[in-house]
Amino acid sequence: MKIINLLRAGLALLLCSLPFLAWSQMDGPALVRVAEAHYKDIAPITLVPGTVVSRNDARLSAEVSGRLTSVADVGTAVEEGGVIAEIEDTMFRLLNTELQAQVARAEARLRFLDNEEKRFSKLAESNLAAATQLDLTIADRDVARGDLAVAQSRLEQNTDQLNRTRIMAPFDGVVVERLSKPGERVEEGTPVVRLIDQQHLEVIARAPLDYFNFVHRGQQLAIRTESQQAFGVVRTVVAVGDENTHQFEIRLDLDGPAFPVGQTLRISVPTSEAREVLTVPRDALVLRPEGQSVFVVYADNTAQQVPVTVGVGQGDRIEIIGAVSPGDTVVTRGNERLQPGQAVSVMDG
Predict the structure, then answer these.
(1) From CA 216, how far away is CA 251, in angstroms rounded?
(2) E-assigned strands of 197-301?
């Protein structure tokens, strides 16, 4: 019984001391992080949908007829000039051999006639018959020269066709679709593969024409998905609006593969000119039932709660309207449990 009474007395003493401990903790300096309120040019924005596309997205087709002997698998990365697909080239190679022989024969005949011309030129000085033969030789030589040009042209044409049996990558990219399979016969113009450059990306978006005057080339706009945020630079603004949707097109450059091709996202488009407003980090805002506020740290290292009205935002900063001045120090971490007038200790970093 005495033990039970002692336990009850100890419990009662502990309960009595809890309010004092809580007050002591609230009354002591709170560790906080701070930032400075300052002016910033911000424009109101609206979010419009956009899609990530590649600057280089090509469906590569066959340029000669024949049977496909190989096609790169989907997912294959190739460098510019690399072979993506090959077409059977037996007939072209055989014809090349034949045409090379024709060129060699034409060259040999032209050399013979050149030598004949020189020989008859010497004889023609004293022999009338040689003069006539010289004229015939010159005529045959000119014809042979034309035959050689024709043979060389045919050889070059066939060599070009032979080279086209190998479909080359026009840029660095990844094969994302096979449009024809090995073993299939293709004709000139038959699509074979789809190649996409995953390094040079852009975003295509459309915004209401009302905001056309507030978007310009070189402007940086925020781009976001549910889990990512980045920035794109406006590369072009199409100055012709769609007559059905009353929208204009925006194209933004992306640095590197921040998003996959085909990703849908939202672009922050300004809806008016930028204006100078007083801003604080978004983390400085304290949301409580009585409204929104920030804690301002004064020279005596106490934090006072200041009610504010929130305006436009940009990135991690947001406009506030209230009894806060530029250069004031506001609490950005540790403000959730602060009480008005409580002493604070600012953490480094």
Answers:
(1) 11
(2) 200-208, 220-224, 229-237, 247-255, 264-270, 275-281, 286-288, 291-297
Burial class (CB in 10 A: 0-12, 13-18, 19+), 212: middle
Question: Do the bridges between strand 247-255 and strand 200-208 make them parallel or antiparallel, or are there none, so unpaired?
Answer: antiparallel
Instruction: Name the token pair of 185.
Output: 């016969």
User: Which candidate, 308, 328, 236, 272, places its Cα nearest to that of 41?
Assistant: 272
Where do we find the tokens 């709660």? 305
Helices 128-163 and 90-123, packing angle to 10 deg = 160
User: Who's near 80: CB < 8 A, 6+ residues apart?
Assistant: 169, 170, 171, 172
Instruction: Give the containing element (helix H, strand E) for 159.
Output: helix 128-163
Rounded Cα gap, residues 148 and 192, in angstroms: 37
Residue-wise pLDDT tens digits, 236-266: 998 887 778 889 999 999 876 678 889 999 9
Residue 196 · residue 173 · CB < 8 Å? yes
**Digit-coded pLDDT (tens) for 277-310:** 999 999 999 998 888 999 999 999 999 999 999 9
Q: What is the C-alpha separation between 347 and 71, in angstroms, rounded? A: 61
Count the Cβ atoms, other than its own, within 10 Å of residue 339. 11
Cβ partners under 8 Å of residue 317, min gap 6: 40, 42, 279, 280, 281, 282
For residue 104, count other CB atoms closer than 10 A to its CB. 12
| Strand 166-168 relative to strand 83-87, pairing | antiparallel
- Burial class of residue 120 in the structure, from the number of CB atoms within 10 Å of its CB (0-12 exposed, 13-18 middle, 19+ buried): buried
Strand order in the sheet with 166-168: 166-168, 83-87, 66-71, 185-186
| Token pair belonging to 30 | 């709170």
Residue 312 has a pLDDT of: 80
Residue 251 CA neighbour count, 13 Å, CB half = 11
Q: The whole model's pTM is what?
A: 0.64
